[in-house]
Amino acid sequence: MAVKIKAIRGMNDLLPQDSSMWQQVEAVLKSTAASFGFSEIRFPVVEKTGLFCRAIGEVTDVVEKEMYTFNDRDGDSLSLRPEGTAGCVRACLENSLIHGQEQRLWYTGPMFRHERPQKGRYRQFHQFGCEVFGLKGPDIDAEIIAFTAEVLAKLGLTEHVTLQLNSLGSSEERAAYRDALVAFLEQHQDVLDEDCRRRMYTNPLRVLDTKNEDIIAVLKDAPKLSDYFGEETKAHFAGLCSRLEGLGIKYELNSRLVRGLDYYNLTVFEWVTDALGSQGTVCGGGRYDGLVEQLGGQSTPAIGFAVGLERMILLLETLQLVQRKPAVDIMICAMGEEPERQQLKLALELRRALPGLGIMTHCGGGKFKKQMAHADKSGARFAVIIGDDEISNNVLSVKDLRSGEQQTIEMAAAAAYFKSVF
Length: 422
Prior knowledge:
Layout: H1 16-35, E1 39-40, E2 46-48, H2 49-56, H3 61-66, E3 69-71, E4 77-80, H4 85-94, E5 103-112, E6 124-133, H5 138-154, E7 162-167, H6 171-186, H7 194-202, H8 213-219, H9 231-247, E8 252-253, E9 265-272, E10 281-287, H10 291-294, E11 302-308, H11 309-318, E12 330-334, H12 337-353, E13 359-361, H13 368-378, E14 382-386, H14 388-393, E15 395-400, E16 406-410, H15 414-421
Parallel strand pairs: 1-5, 7-8, 12-13, 12-14
Antiparallel strand pairs: 2-4, 3-4, 5-6, 6-11, 7-9, 9-10, 10-11, 14-15, 15-16
Helix pairs in contact: 1-5, 5-9
């Protein structure tokens, strides 16, 4: 017997019994995007490696340790996308979508990072992302956060998550702060772990994002980035906060929130939960006003966010806020040759009249008991039974598989009946 080939570690199959939960969450995300006036964009899962190096930053965990990178047959270095923003910007630039015009875009699909697999963190994971180009005021920042808050509310998660908010200022303000932070870290090198010592000179703001409790304690006395903000940055952040308060969106200020990618400036935010242990971030984003120019375009303000679908669904499952839905609502069973022909015709009529329902025909014949067992196993709510007697009288036998009650309805009234009960 041939050896079975298994899935790659950290890359999981989405099985039929789970796909309905994903579809429910994706439907909420897509309908919310439509209600906020966003359009879908699709772009490749493979890009030139240089795109991510320039966009995300050479000295980040993603680029240094986590990307799936390979040379193709032409010798070009390619990488599976570790996130969506860089590819979205590249697609917009290549297709002249954002030069001098506003765009509000959404996308969804798999991303890839070679991390240590654990619950809520995988090597292939799925994101739903949104990006807005061409708007620089705090009003669009508030609108983006309101989008995420609306999604969380629709999923019943508002009381289970907290919005954390910070401003990273401008690149000039961060440069001035960087010198002060490095000077502070140099005085406490004995407390820093290997990662933080390495980042101290290459990317010191990432030290603020450490999970090491000893370092966190020391950082309480570190210089504050907000002390280096100019009036424009202060006004932008104050404008955002006042708009969130006007919307009734509660938030916490977190001066250590820097996000894991280098392209962010000004507003950054995360929705976090304590229900998932260390994997607490379910949605995050921020402003990246310099990225379009950095990738070869004209200076363009931009902001976006991404939702991790695996983690969002894990949270919903943990809190028992989502249920698996059967794919079948109505199973049609036929007893005899002519009833089988009528079964196919009835199924087609019901599918056209009831496009939101799953209507399955029992195929392969068999005795009544076998067909009803199939209907029960399918998860259908109703079984429709067609036999010679039903055809002679132009009726259908309908059994409610939850209550066990059975009744007879007119064949011509089948669509109207099921519309009334679903």
